[in-house]
Amino acid sequence: MMRxxxxxTALVLGSTLNAASISAKYDISFSVFGKIGEATVSFKxxxxxxxxxxxxxxxxxxxxxxxxxxxxxxxxxxxxNGILKPELYKKIRRSDHRHEDTYYVFDPDSHNxxxxxxxxxxxxxxxxxxxxxxxxxxxxxxxxDSLETLPYKxxxxxxxxxxxxxxxxxxxxxxxxxxxxxxxxxxxKGEITITNPAGKKRKEIAKLMPDNEDRxxxxxxxxxxxxxxxxxxxxxxxxxxxAKEAMLKDVLLFGDVRGKRVWQKGEIR
Length: 269
Known about the structure:
With 269 residues, this protein is mainly beta. It has helices spanning 2-11, 60-65, 158-163, 165-169, 199-208, and strands spanning 19-30, 34-46, 49-58, 70-80, 83-94, 98-106, 113-129, 134-149, 156-157, 176-183, 191-196, 216-221, 232-237, 243-251, 255-268.
């Protein structure tokens, strides 16, 4: 559930490169359960440098069931000719019983990406203590780490890609699609496919998200958790190419998953 929540969080961003500072909040809901979480997003520039920060987590009953799972995603890099060029992508996952830190370090010349991952898991066991005549719980900590070079070259991470979508859409006519290799995407190829829909498909998405300005895209990410009919995420962008909402249709057991912007503040230059 948490991977689905935060991948949607990462995707409900849209894009603008003229923003000195923008922050927004999104509510995440399942059609079956209602609101199950929320995410806050910020994008800031410091001269030629940028920083994207996302903090997303479960809330209410979902938080209790999901062991208070939470994720933080960050992208650090430079801006060249209006394009974000990541240098470090950081992903932190936390819950009551485990945490995982993953770092992606980019080589700007070769576009090779080094991935470092650290995991810690708390393992709980209980046994009956006859001297105390009660159950006693013990905890052991299991740690692991790994270092590898991704099997593909990448110029974007999950966050920088979607803040670069304005440029990408300029290259994708309606009815066409484009695939990008992206650090943080699952699979040996790390591909994410963005489509600028046309015809019947565009009308279908517009009907699902009627508060739109005809800036509609679909995104397909290779993730096992995306057990929807086609694994397509629909995104509704505003005039600044920031996402107003996103929807994943017909997720197994849950119905539709929707991320909707509830507030935004910032400065557009």
